[in-house]
Amino acid sequence: MKTVKIKDKEFELFLTQDVIEKAVADVAEKLNEDLADKDPLFICVLNGSFMFASELMKRVTIASEVSFVKMSSYKGISSSGKIKEIYGLEEDIKERTVVIVEDIVDTGYTMSLMIDQLLCDEPKEILVATMLLKPDALKQEVRLDYVALEIPNDFIVGYGLDYDGYGRNLPDIYKIKL
Question: Which letter does DSSP use for residue 76 in this model?
Answer without folding.
Answer: T
